[in-house]
Amino acid sequence: SSTSTELAPGSFWWKRGAILGRSETQECIHYNYNPSAVESRGNHSAIVTCSGEKDKRLHCFATWRNVSGTVEVVKQGCWLDDVNCYDRNECVEKKDAPEVFFCCCEGSLCNEKFFYIPDTQAQIPSKLTTSNPVPQKPQVLTTLMYSLVPIMGITAIILFSFWMYRHHKLAYPPVLVPTQDPGPMPPSPILGQKPLQLLEIKARGRFGCVWKAQLLNDYVAVKIFPIQDKQSWQNEYEIYNLSGMRHENLLHFIGAEKRGTNLDIELWLITAYHEKGSLTDYLKASVVSWNELCYIAQTMARGLAYLHEDIPGLKDGHKPAIAHRDIKSKNVLLKANLTACIADFGLALRFEAGKSAGDTHGQVGTRRYMAPEVLEGAINFQRDAFLRIDMYALGLVLWELASRCKAADVNA
Hints:
Layout: E1 25-32, H1 35-40, E2 46-51, E3 59-67, E4 70-79, E5 91-93, E6 101-105, E7 114-116, H2 138-171, E8 196-204, E9 209-215, E10 218-226, H3 230-240, E11 253-259, E12 266-272, H4 279-285, H5 290-308, E13 311-314, E14 317-319, E15 321-323, E16 332-334, E17 340-342, E18 349-351, H6 372-375, H7 383-403
Helix pairs in contact: 5-7
């Protein structure tokens, strides 16, 4: 004989009569199993009103499991236009022993009661014995705990290791990088007390990032170094302050500042700002004519030649020969009229009479632009060798420039 259960948390109700049709709304039983609710206060069924698009049929559905003869309801609710549910006034699953049973029907509250009738049976009985759905058994929670606890433990270990690494890195910076104040810096007569406002990041590089900033009514570029890269900042600052470093084809230096205290110190270099950006950015966005190619190449070569030149007898002193050591299209900026100017002297090396250039001249710069002797480690540590390395890199930049030139210039 068939029995039914009275409404209880997680159970199903007596069918109140199916109403076939294509009404714009339909009532269905709504239920959604929640394990946490079972543990605390139980799950509850409710009646919901379903609505759909015009000329679309509405249905109700139910899903459940059969765990060792015990029915466990998973979900009940509304189901939108599905041809498999047409004209079904009872919710019946006919598939052979699925893992999760599913049925849908058409009519108000037709999913209150649901059945599993294999295809071999000739007709659907009027009533089918059902049991009260019970909360998920503790074994499920135990399985979940055994699965999740190791994952959570591994995650916690990874996070703790990362935190320890960061903490250790901040507490014990590299030996070669001092953590104290980088030392007194002569005030910039150009900056003085003028307000400097950072606007947006324009580029990121090996030693820091470059901001577009506003200084009174002018735009400037601010290259910001973290304290860990003090050596690069110091080298570039000293190169810019050498005699004779004012040249049309070298980036114009405005001043330097330090911001913050202790480990939060930032080292700033303020230079002229050029809206067109680097040669790399320009060639990515556009091609150049033959005349433009020649002009960019000429001004770029003029800047590098001046950098390499040893010029005594200047008004402000003696300009030594300087090897850039990181010539690439990213370190060549373009002015509004496409005049090239060379930037980024963080790796530059100066050659002064009677002074050693130092010992640490390994593989520095960008590998793509390195000369073969640099890649092979067969460097002759003489001035001319370093200058030739710059010329090799310049040749690769010229090749980049030529590869973005139009095939022909009708005005040439």
